[in-house]
Inverse folding.
């Protein structure tokens, strides 16, 4: 499994809506960041409910860090003219954890198979360009134990710490118990850099204990 992937530049469940008009046909595109097939299908059904008078609600979604789950639907358009071109437009950018729905209102002028392929491709490409992309990395979670007296200073130092590779150290939270437990996150491949940076920062007094993993936006 890859330790990073690309998705749209939006919070989970968010995205953008764009509209494209070609020969009087309107193509209304919604693109959203999703994590499950249920979430993706819910976006499609919401558009179907909102624009109940439209004939076509074509869709494509890709899920998982490696993009292994990929589905598309022509929803009544000629086979291969909508869903697959939409899916290809998402894959061309390398996106995953994303769903795109294009609702079409027919304008009275037939576009032909080639015209439909171009229209649905352009509709999704326009939405991707509007929302942008962001990288998500598998990060290791680490706990740094600090005496109360030094906790504030160490937390400030960690918040401003950038590893030699250029990745920032993310402070995930502080828990006050017998000592201050400062939880931080860095890409899993950079655990050794974090250990070395802490040693340099504290003359060897600070260490990082692994406590888990998660996916983090960068």
């Amino acid at each position: 499994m890859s330790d990073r992937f690309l998705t749209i530049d939006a919070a989970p469940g968010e995205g953008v809506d764009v509209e494209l008009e070609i020969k009087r046909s309107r193509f209304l595109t919604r693109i959203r960041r999703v994590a499950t097939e249920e979430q993706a299908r819910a976006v499609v059904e919401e558009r179907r409910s909102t624009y109940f008078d439209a004939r076509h609600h074509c869709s494509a979604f890709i899920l998982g860090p490696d993009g292994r789950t990929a589905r598309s639907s022509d929803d009544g358009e000629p086979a291969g003219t909508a869903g697959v071109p939409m899916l290809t437009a998402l894959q061309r950018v390398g996106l995953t954890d994303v769903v795109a729905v294009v609702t079409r209102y027919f304008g009275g002028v037939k576009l032909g198979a080639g015209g439909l392929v171009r229209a649905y491709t352009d509709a999704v490409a326009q939405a991707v360009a509007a929302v942008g992309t962001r990288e998500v990395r598998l990060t290791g979670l680490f706990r740094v134990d600090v005496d109360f007296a030094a906790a504030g200073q160490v937390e400030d130092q960690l918040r401003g710490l950038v590893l030699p590779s250029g990745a920032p150290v993310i402070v995930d939270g502080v828990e006050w118990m017998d000592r201050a437990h400062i939880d931080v996150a860095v890409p899993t491949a950079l655990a050794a850099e974090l250990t070395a940076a802490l040693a340099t920062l504290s003359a060897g007094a600070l260490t990082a204990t692994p406590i888990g993993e998660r996916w983090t936006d960068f």
